[in-house]
Design goal:
The chain has helices spanning 2-5, 12-55, 64-74, 104-112, 160-165, 204-211, 226-229, 231-244, 250-261, and strands at 80-84, 88-96, 118-127, 130-141, 147-155, 175-184, 189-198. By secondary structure, it is α+β, with helices and mostly antiparallel strands. The protein has one domain. The protein has a seven-stranded mixed sheet, covered by helices on one side. A hairpin with a 5-residue loop joins strand 4 and strand 5. The radius of gyration is 24 Å and the shape is elongated. The protein starts with a helix and ends in a 19-residue tail after the last helix.
């Protein structure tokens, strides 16, 4: 009878081993979550410092020395893209979380642990001795695997070509917001983006709307949408989208093509610079 009562139950030694394995897995998961959370906080602090440094530059006024000072503090020597002198200098720098894209099975484990991969970055363009444009952005992957990008831009002025892409400039000529979806062809991955740009002539309110990025959202357990990351700029984009209507007539379309052709070849459109630095 005693032997029959133990049928279907593993020996006590096996039970102890299984319990020990389960305990180790649980303890490892707790430690991993703590490490990832600490790293997210550290990277967020670095990103906020980088954002402050980048947005302190003034398009049309800041020069090469100030650009080099920023790279010394927040970047590395290899952050310079190709040449860098008074004529032309491009910088791309940033930081990213420990959970940044790894192999698929590792990304899945990190997702189970509640970690969201994020890349923070900055791009600065200098032409003819003066900073012309600066950008601070973040790429963030949600729990379902989709990517979003939120970015704020400072530029010396909007071009005629910019007005073709940002119809809201008709109503507020020194503040633009655009949103859409861009496919990264080599990975067949779609990125939903929101970009807000201002010039030195923008109002204080426009500056606040363009530069309000909610980095704290990244550390929350729930996913962040573009409306969470840049709530003020997102609301402005919704408003502009409703007002713009069919803004390009045939004549305007022809004028826009001419405007793009006449653009400075050393400067990509402000709304396209972010694709020079994407994590995929």
């Amino acid at each position: 009878m005693g032997d029959e009562g133990r049928v279907g139950h593993p020996p006590s030694g096996v039970r102890r081993i299984l319990f020990f394995i389960a305990f180790i897995v649980l303890l490892s998961s707790i430690v991993a979550v703590i490490v990832l959370r600490i790293d997210e906080g550290v990277q967020r602090n670095k990103a906020e410092a980088l954002e402050r440094g980048v947005l302190a530059l003034r398009p049309g006024k800041s020069g090469l020395s100030e650009l080099r000072d920023l790279v010394r503090v927040y970047g590395r020597a290899d952050n310079y893209v190709d040449r860098c002198d008074e004529s032309e200098c491009d910088v791309s720098t940033g930081t990213y979380s420990l959970s940044f894209p790894r192999k698929k099975y590792i990304s899945w484990i990190l997702q189970v642990l509640g970690s969201r991969p994020v890349d923070y970055g900055a791009i600065i363009d200098l032409v003819d001795g003066a900073v012309r444009r600066v950008e601070f952005s973040l790429f963030y992957r949600t729990s379902n695997g989709s990517w979003v990008q939120a970015s704020t831009h400072l530029l010396d002025q909007f071009s005629e070509a910019d007005r073709c892409v940002s119809p809201g400039l008709l109503h507020h000529p020194d503040y633009a917001v655009i949103s859409g979806v861009r496919r990264i062809e080599n990975t067949l991955t779609d990125i939903t983006f929101l970009r807000a740009g201002v010039t030195p002539k923008a109002t204080a309110e426009e500056y606040r709307h363009a530069q309000s990025i909610n980095l704290a959202c990244i550390e929350s357990l729930r996913d962040c949408s573009l409306s969470d990351l840049m709530p003020l700029a997102y609301a402005d984009w919704l408003r502009d989208s409703k007002e713009k209507g069919d803004f390009q007539t045939a004549k305007e379309e022809s004028e826009c093509k001419q405007a793009f052709a006449a653009s400075d070849s050393r400067l990509a459109p402000w709304w396209a610079t972010g694709w020079r630095r994407h994590p995929l």
